Amino acid sequence: MGAGLLTVLGLVALVVVLCAVWVYQGPGPAARSGEVTTVVLRRGASLPEIASTLEQAGVIRSSSLFLTAAQTTGAARKLKAGEYEFPSHASLRQVLIKIRDGKIVRHKVTIAEGLTSEMVVDILMRAPELTGTVPTPPEGSILPETYQVQRGEDRAAVLQRMMDDRDALLDALWATRQPGLPFETKDQAVTLASIVEKETGLASERPHVAAVFINRLRQGVRLGSDPTIIYGLTRGRPLGRGILQSELQRQTPYNTYLIDGLPPTPIANPGRAALEAVLNPIKSDDLYFVADGTGGHVFASTYEEHERNVARWRQVERAKAAAPVTSKTPPSL
């Protein structure tokens, strides 16, 4: 009888272990809608609150079993707050591991090259995952990039990360800059890079465009950049039309047709390629460029050559135009 009882107890223990393993590693509940269930675990939540939140969301079947598993495996002291996505039928083990390892949902905020700081703040304020308000930082102080953020992250912290990344990149590029550049400070380099950024959307062209502006600075020739006019009029917001002749003659601190040298601040937030182009431009004698009708530009070292290029651009405009041209000047130098 003693041996039989031991055998029965052994079988019972085995069944209990197998059931526990099944409960822990077997498939969990199906998602109530779609293929995943999203749950936000708030910062500071207790273990019972976490278990209850998961049960109410339908991620786990029993908060009691979750509490037991978390305490038995040692995960209870390591669970992390945040937004989680759990696939349909996720096992209790998978749920615990994901929360223990902090595998939260990462959202993306993309800042395109050439946006003004006000536009960047607008993007941050529209991001529903973020919290808090944020002041508008100085123009040119942000590095355009795609940033990963998490739900509940403070907008000011995300903005600071963008500014810190800009500073780190600028420091690295400044340390390896080309000697003899016609500006003395990093801020001046950013200002010129912002003009280069707004003048061309082609990364491959930026070192050439930068060379044109650097040649002009060296020779005391005004930059004559249309985007600086727009910034002086709208702080970088699109005009929605061409520049008027009267606006070309309007005196603002940013109108590089009328002022010597660089404007007082950047006119946008330049990206990596524009910063690199300004600090390491190509060798060129060119002083002019104008659109070529294909999205790029054609360059010239003399005004006579530039006028011929402008005439060709005007032919392209007439051939392609669907509306009258408002501005009497080419869309660049």
Description:
This protein is mainly alpha-helical and 333 residues long. The chain is built from twelve helices and six strands. It has helices at 2-25, 47-57, 63-73, 92-100, 117-126, 155-175, 186-199, 206-219, 226-234, 245-248, 272-279, 303-320, and strands spanning 36-41, 82-87, 107-110, 146-149, 288-291, 297-300. A hairpin with a 5-residue loop joins strand 5 and strand 6. The termini are far apart.
Summarize the model shown.
By secondary structure, the chain is mainly alpha-helical. It is 46% helix and 8% strand.
- Report on the biggest sheet: 2 strands, antiparallel
N-to-C order of helices and strands: HEHHEHEHEHHHHHHEEH
Rg, Cα atoms, Å: 30 Å
Q: Would you tell me the structural class of the helices and strands?
A: mainly alpha
Rough outline? elongated
Write the layout of secondary structure elements.
Layout: H1 2-25, E1 36-41, H2 47-57, H3 63-73, E2 82-87, H4 92-100, E3 107-110, H5 117-126, E4 146-149, H6 155-175, H7 186-199, H8 206-219, H9 226-234, H10 245-248, H11 272-279, E5 288-291, E6 297-300, H12 303-320
Antiparallel strand pairs: 1-2, 3-4, 5-6
Describe the structure using short key phrases.
mainly alpha, two-stranded antiparallel ribbon, elongated
